[in-house]
């Protein structure tokens, strides 16, 4: 079957069976939220390091 027409034999808006279980979906959501929190903490740490470096450079004698 052609890639362009694959899946067009189904009526539009037809319900598809769930591909992953609700428990797996909840686990993936927890992992995604933890990854987002980790990335957020990393970006805050990077911003603090950049701020401290900028202050240090600002105080250097010209």
TrEMBL record:
Top-rank taxon, per record: Bacteria
Record has Transmembrane as a keyword: yes
Stretches that traverse the bilayer: 31-55
Keywords: Membrane, Transmembrane, Transmembrane helix
Record-given protein name: Uncharacterized protein
The species this protein was found in: Bradyrhizobium forestalis
Organism lineage: Bacteria, Pseudomonadati, Pseudomonadota, Alphaproteobacteria, Hyphomicrobiales
């Amino acid at each position: 079957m052609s890639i362009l027409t694959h899946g067009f034999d189904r009526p539009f808006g037809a319900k598809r069976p769930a591909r992953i279980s609700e428990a797996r979906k909840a686990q993936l959501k927890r992992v995604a939220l933890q990854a987002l929190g980790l990335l957020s903490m990393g970006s805050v740490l990077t911003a603090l390091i950049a701020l401290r470096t900028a202050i240090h450079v600002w105080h250097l004698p010209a």
